[in-house]
Write a structure and sequence with these properties.
The protein folds into 2 domains: 122 residues, Aminopeptidase; 169 residues, 3-Layer(aba) Sandwich (Aminopeptidase), CATH 3.40.630. A hairpin with a 2-residue loop joins β3 and β4. The two termini are 37 Å apart. The protein has 12 helices and 13 strands. It holds the Pfam family Acetyltransf_6. Belongs to the FemABX family.
């Protein structure tokens, strides 16, 4: 078995079926999260026609490395169902990281590909929360009549009667307006710095992912009051970043945006439109309950915490705790706590 780490891996994805990969695995997406302290890479295991790969963002700590998978969803994907070979490949990944000065890695598994299922015997997989995915393969009528709740349908009708206009922009022409709306939304809800992105992020997104995305917009009398980046590739679409004007919340702009975006993704041949989960793990989380109004279909999101060099990892964490006692309550349970 050949195990390599590379910064160019899109050609390997050509060997995968649409149900085995996703937009989150494209070089153009993962490299959005590079900076002067981190590098986008992919570990690839191959043998014969079998391939298993996992993109990640490599960080540096002292003379060692760590990693986390890209914002959103990731983890290992493979083009084979051979369980014995998959287990061998996953063991090969762990050996490679251990032998090449990696101390740990944090993985966000992909709920729609369900890669946590084939990783659970060889990796430390932890169930985190349910997420929501509209089934877009059966058609618009099925979404409207069998998935969307009656109360939600009423909100969508209200939005249309109130004069709200939806548009899907393939050329992302309203990006500058969207960015302002998104940043204002993050400020309003008190979002962590992690959820803010610089101008280069949006420029590179538009340059690299314009063929895998559209900008969903909702306007009232020409004013942008709700907007989201919708990404897609193959079988799967995703509700990526969203901003909305709280003043117009009662009009149902978000409801209209998700309904119309689901219709558009159906037209594009997408089979599942992933809305994600809530702001917490609670099944009563308001955002989670809002998303559940669009479908009864729930997926399972899991994370992975891997430690490859426990002695070094424990030493670095202990040093961080000694120097940052005020941060232990907020970040002490995180695998990469020493980054904060």
């Amino acid at each position: 078995m050949n195990v390599i780490i590379t910064d160019k891996w899109n050609t390997y994805l050509d060997q995968f079926e649409d149900s085995q990969k996703d937009v989150y695995y494209l070089e153009e997406y993962v490299k959005l999260y590079e900076n002067d302290r981190s590098k986008a890479l992919c570990i690839v295991c191959s043998e014969g026609g079998n391939v298993l790969l996992m993109p990640f963002i490599r960080g540096e700590i002292e003379d060692y490395y760590d990693f986390e998978t890209q914002y959103g969803y990731g983890g290992p994907i493979t083009n084979t169902s051979d369980k014995n070979w998959i287990d061998k490949a996953l063991s090969g990944i762990k050996d490679y990281f251990r032998d090449n000065r990696y101390i740990c890695g944090f993985i966000r598994f992909h709920p729609l590909i369900d890669n946590a299922a084939f990783c659970k015997d060889t990796m430390n997989v932890i169930y985190d929360r349910h997420t929501v995915a509209i089934l877009t393969d059966k058609g618009v009528e099925d979404i409207w009549t069998t998935q969307i709740s009656s109360k939600n349908r009423n909100m969508i009708r209200k939005a249309e009667k109130s004069g709200l206009i939806y548009k899907a922009e393939d050329n992302l022409e309203s990006f500058p307006e969207f960015i302002d709306l998104y940043n204002a939304t993050m400020k309003r809800i008190g979002a962590d710095e992690f959820y803010y992105f610089d101008d280069d992020y949006y420029k590179e997104f538009k340059n690299g992912l314009i063929d895998n995305s559209f900008l969903a917009t909702v306007r009232l009398d020409g004013k942008l009051i709700c907007s989201a980046i919708i990404m897609y590739d193959g079988d799967f679409g995703h509700y990526h970043l969203e901003g909305s004007d709280h003043e117009y919340k009662s009009l149902g702009a978000n409801n209209l945006l998700l309904w119309k975006s689901a219709c558009r993704l159906h037209e594009l041949g997408v089979k599942k439109f992933h809305l994600g989960g809530g702001n917490s793990t609670s099944e009563e989380d308001p955002l989670f309950k809002f998303k559940k109004a669009f479908t009864h279909n729930l997926e399972s999101f899991a994370i992975g915490k891997e430690i490859y060099n426990k002695d070094v990892y424990d030493r670095i964490c202990q040093k961080w705790e000694n120097e940052n006692p005020d941060k232990i309550a907020s970040f002490g349970n995180r695998l990469l706590k020493y980054r904060y």
